[in-house]
Amino acid sequence: MRNLIYHLKPRLYPPFKLMEKTTEANVEHFKVYIDESILYEQQEEMMIARCFIVAFYTIKAKDIERLNCAYKQTIYANKATHEKKSNQVSDKTNRQALEIAQNYLVNATVLERSAIDYSQFGAWEKNMYLSLELLSYIQPIKNILLQLKNCAKTAEIIVDVVIDRTSQNCIDPCLSLNKQLLDRLAQEVSDSDNCVVINYQTVDSKESYGIQVADMFAGAYRKELSSYYISEESF
User: Fold this and answer.
1) How far apart are CA 169 and CA 203, in angstroms?
2) What distances in angstroms separate CA 230 from CA 77, 85, 225, one per listed residue?
3) Which domain of life is it from (predicted)?
4) Is 198 helix (H, G, I), strand (E, B) or coil?
5) What 3-state DSSP class applies to 149?
6) What pLDDT, in 10s, does the model give residues 2-39?
7) How far is it, in rounded angstroms, from Cα 215 to Cα 36?
8) How many C-beta atoms lie closer than 10 Å to residue 212's C-beta?
9) Residue of 41, 187, 198, 208 with fewest CB within 10 Å of its CB?
């Protein structure tokens, strides 16, 4: 499988640019959908996690309904009731999902880092977890917020940070920690010209096409990465 992501038109990865805004608009509202994927490799008789991938898909809130409608009509055209995940669908379906998403795209960001087993850090496990949270989620979100702020022509920017609900991120202390970090982040990027407000949400991916798009994006990147590693190992 080759060039899954890059099959799309280059405008999926343009320099960051927002549409011109009317003078009547005082608030811009965006949603950043986040999902993860892990690249595994076979080592002897075990599957070992090699890379941890996080995808961030940013869209204007006013475009969500149009995205939902297009996504449902195309990806769920066969009336399937089960959620379609990137690791379970064909490359064709994966491409279709990204082609739909790019019609409403504000920003697409992917973070890739080595997969890490927290247990190897012993007493430092919690500190390592926090460090990786900052690296994998908070810093990319900060970059997205700064790009939104720099391009905005409104006094207030509202950003809903929406992440797939898991057994870890929807309960304390992780839930409180993430909210605190994002609130602090909003304060850091706000200034006298632009006030940034962040709403943190965890949702079930089965109920959110935005999360499913982020999953398709992360999955496409994982497939590209897997193809690259296979080609490297063939030499």
Assistant:
1) 10
2) 33, 23, 9
3) Bacteria
4) strand
5) helix
6) 334 433 333 333 333 334 444 446 889 999 999 988 88
7) 7
8) 25
9) 187
Per-residue confidence (pLDDT) for residue 47, from 0 to 100: 66
pLDDT tens by residue, 202-218: 899 999 999 999 999 99
Measured CA to CA, the distance from residue 53 to residue 216 in angstroms comes to 12
Work out the burial of residue 232: count CB atoms within 10 Å of its CB; fewer than 13 is exposed, 13-18 middle, 19 or more buried. Answer: exposed
What 3-state DSSP class applies to 4? coil
Confidence (pLDDT) at 118: 58
Amino acid at 118: Y
Please give the Cα distance from 4 to 93 (Å, whole number).
11
Q: Check if the beta carbon of residue 86 is closer than 8 Å to that of residue 37.
A: yes
Residue 169: CB atoms within 10 Å: 17
Looking at the DSSP bridge assignments, the partners of residue 203 are 164
CA distance 101 to 104: 6
Please name which of 152, 162, 211, 156 lies closest in space to residue 186, comparing C-alpha atoms: 156
Helix (H, G, I), strand (E, B) or coil at 95: helix
At residue 120, the 3 state secondary structure works out as: helix
For all residues of the chain together, what is the average pLDDT? 78
Residue 197 has phi, psi (to 5 degrees) of: -120, 130
Q: Is pLDDT above 90 for 61?
A: yes
In this structure, the number of other CB atoms found within 10 A of the CB of residue 7 comes to 14
Beta bridge partners of 57: 33, 108
Entry pTM: 0.81
